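Please decode residue identities from the backbone states below.
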């Protein structure tokens, strides 16, 4: 049974940093690309960043490029999102997701339940 469990969310002041983690289980983690999505209050879910199965290729939405960094540890079955220089507009529920293949251009087939990030003074 595929399980994706996010952690690391919370309240942070503008300009601060947070590190989100996704613990994966129930599948061969190294065989799948992964992504982080977010859903701001009252808005649709949007792609934040993606990483290929090996970690050799990454993608970032323009809104987070240069501030966020996605990584994965295939030995520990975990994926991380380092978020720096956070802005109030980054406030959202952040979701870990599994892509259906090794490349991050494949569709999403599993979602975590999400972790809330609130950026506010």
């Amino acid at each position: 049974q595929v399980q994706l469990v996010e952690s690391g969310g919370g309240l942070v002041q503008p300009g601060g940093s947070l590190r989100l983690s996704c613990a994966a289980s129930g599948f061969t983690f190294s065989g799948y690309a992964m992504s982080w999505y977010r859903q701001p209050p009252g808005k649709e879910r949007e792609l934040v960043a993606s990483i290929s199965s090996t970690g050799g290729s990454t993608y970032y939405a323009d809104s987070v490029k240069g501030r966020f960094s996605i990584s994965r540890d295939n030995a520990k079955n975990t994926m991380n999102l380092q978020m720096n220089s956070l802005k109030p507009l980054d406030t959202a529920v952040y979701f870990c997701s599994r892509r259906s293949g090794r490349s991050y251009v494949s569709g999403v087939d599993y979602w975590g339940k999400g972790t809330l990030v609130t950026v506010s003074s």
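Observation: The chain has a mean pLDDT of 97.
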